[in-house]
Amino acid sequence: MKDRKFSHLTKSVHIIFIIAFSLIILFANIIVYDVFRGEDESVVKKINEIIVNGKIKYGIDIIEQSAGNIKGLAYVRGWAFIEDVYMDEESQITELILASESNYYKINTFSMDRNDLPNALSIRDLNIEKSGFFVYFSEYKIKPGVYRVGLYINNDGKNQAFNWTNVYVKKEGKKLYKYLGEPVELKNIPPVSPNISFNIDKPIKSENGYITISGWSNFASEDSSKQKISVIITDSRNNIIAYPALPQINDGGTTKSNDKIGTGFVVNIPNDALKPDVYSVNIMIKNGGVSKLGNKAYKVIYMENNMYFGEDILPLEEVNPSDFVLRDTKQYKYYIDIFTFDETLDKLSVVGWLFETNIKSKADSVYAIFESQKKSYVFKAHTNERKDVTDAFKDGTNYDLSGFDIEVYRKFLEDGVYDLYLASDYDEKVKFNTGYSLNVKDDKIEVVKR
Asked: Do residues 168 and 292 both lie within one domain?
């Protein structure tokens, strides 16, 4: 008798679970719906209608298919908030945007607590512990294709923001899953084409465990809408990997650098797929069955989970120190504020300012030269805004862009003692002896005042 009652109870529980799961599926089909339809021009207008007056900081933790072993049910969980804006948990709306070249969807999400975020991000005054979100939705409602994931936040109606993430999903058959593309090792290198123009966006982004390389490319005078782009990465041992690029859907619906549909590209490379090294980055375009390489390559450095353009931290090979003429400082003024050596990264930072008197300062015009009897290096400085310099001299000239900082990694220097010069190419290539020497030995760069 007891066994019979237990059997009836078990059947009742199963029925309740079946009903609950059916409701979840029904609910999932209701909460996902289309918002963007039509050609790319309409997409431009629709996206621009979303007010973008803030930058979203986000993390997408999970994209799961067949959630809870329920076929057709997708689950997404993460967090998102507008930077420097206090989060109003009662009124914030977070929406997930899925966009392919032809289909666009908006998905309402539900809020959840993320008490780990204030400590993890060292942000404790914006109520970001309420920025978590999750959503279940039907995979069957999404049409086949590769979709970029975007996030839209409306915080109390006053603060709104929309950003594309570096996350893609692919709908294939009945399944929706996170998509990175399939990297391929190249054995046969296609020929270089002088007709390929391309550009890689600066800076190369590193977030949420991925290096994101984006930009635009197209064959001159060819239909770029039919092309397939791969990003080619070659390491120092000449291993060559092709990462199939995904279409980049910018805020305007096309590319930033030229206005042709289909030329924008983006690849996401997991951090653990790369080793610290100097890499060459090129692109390969397959158009009409023919594959060709771009006519240039970028030198990049990968270390500490970040990727840098070589020109930002490597010596400039195309610049000869002897091109700069030694001058006194009557016409030019400079000052080094501080030297800092990071023992963790084996990196020397030099911060200061330099300008030509009575000449408006301009960006990207300052260099550091390391000279020894055996070897010399030229490093390009980053420009910093220094309104304090303009205010200090008060001669009617704008020196706001006179600030600089230079980053030099020990691993790219040969052992030796180097004289440090600052240099400029404002009107002519000139250099100035700073009176400092750099002793490069073992894992350190020691600064010595002569």
From this structure: no
- pLDDT digit string (tens) for 211-223? 888 888 766 545 5
Percentage of residues of the chain with pLDDT beyond 90: 23
Domain range spanning residue 115?
A: 25-178
CATH of the domain at 54: 2.60.40
**Residue 72: predicted pLDDT:** 82
pLDDT one-digit tens code per residue, 320-350? 888 898 887 778 899 999 999 988 778 899 9
Specify whether 31 is located in the same domain as 172. yes
Based on the fold, state whether residues 64 and 161 are members of the same structural domain.
yes
Residues 273 and 413 in one domain: no
How far is residue 52's CA from residue 49's CA, in Å, rounded to a whole number? 9
For residue 74, tell me if it sits in a domain.
yes
Amino acid 45: pLDDT: 39
Which of 178, 212, 236 is the last residue before a domain boundary?
178
Q: At residue 202, does pLDDT exceed 60? A: yes
Look at 114 and 178; give whichever has higher pLDDT.
Answer: 114
Q: What total of structural domains would you count in the chain?
A: 3
Residue of higher predicted confidence among 35 and 268: 268
Residue 2 domain flag: no
The last residue of a domain, from among 178, 207, 227: 178
Q: Average of pLDDT values for 299-310?
A: 84
